[in-house]
Specification:
about 220 residues, 10 helices, about 70% helix, globular
């Protein structure tokens, strides 16, 4: 229900963007950012909300992250298709735009899986996972702003890298309408997310298997 509510709010935000922020660069009659707001909402859910859901399940004795939980994220992506269709209609987007947006969103799923594995198997590490997720979600926009405002010289390239490394801002950029490109670019941010997720997942598994197991006689 939280997921669907976030998608509905995101669609509304895309339909009335001026109610949130009046952009001086927005042209009258330009496509609405409905597809972009939906992509951002999905990324926020998978990176911030879904790990909390997994942590609650783990505390409730329903076990850590497994194949069923991973499959759940795929079901959630599929459940967003009606919202995507509506968002694409209002954004004047094409099938190519939809495919590119879905690629950008799904590229962040390994990070969500790795974060959920940590919160499910390592309770002391939960605050650090939460801080990392917040930095990942908001760090791109904040870093881009700081670089552009306070640095000079090669600030343009650094600001672009800060914008692209965050799944949220990357998805926003990838979900633009009328772009004739099937896959989100550049590829290096998505590759770095997969690599970081793999390293975090292996570290979590190593930590779990490295713990001393208490026997039934230990008290």
């Amino acid at each position: 229900m939280i997921y669907l509510a976030m998608l509905l709010v995101a669609l509304a935000a895309g339909l009335w963007p001026g109610a949130i922020h009046h952009s001086q660069t927005h042209r009258a009659g330009a496509p609405l950012p409905t597809l972009q707001t939906l992509a951002v909402a999905q990324c926020c859910y998978f990176l911030l909300v879904w790990p909390i859901v997994i942590a609650a399940r783990s505390d409730g004795g329903r076990g850590p992250l497994g194949a069923a939980a991973v499959a759940e994220t795929i079901v959630l992506v599929v459940a967003a298709i009606p919202f995507y269709v509506a968002g694409a209609y209002f954004a004047d987007a094409t099938v190519v735009d939809l495919a590119r947006t879905a690629t950008a969103v799904c590229a962040g799923l390994p990070l969500a899986w790795a974060g959920s594995l940590w919160v499910a198997t390592c309770r002391p590490g939960r605050p650090w996972v939460a801080l990392s997720a917040l930095a990942l979600v908001f760090g791109g926009a904040v870093g881009c702003y700081v670089v552009r405002e306070f640095l000079s010289g090669g600030a343009a390239g650094a600001a672009r890298m800060a914008w692209q490394i965050s799944p949220i801002t990357f998805a926003w950029q990838a979900a633009q309408s009328q772009v004739q490109r099937w896959f989100a670019e550049p590829l290096w941010p998505m590759a770095s997310w997969v690599l970081a997720a793999a390293m975090a997942g292996l570290a979590s598994l190593a930590l779990v298997h490295g713990r001393p197991h208490k026997s039934g006689d230990d008290k």
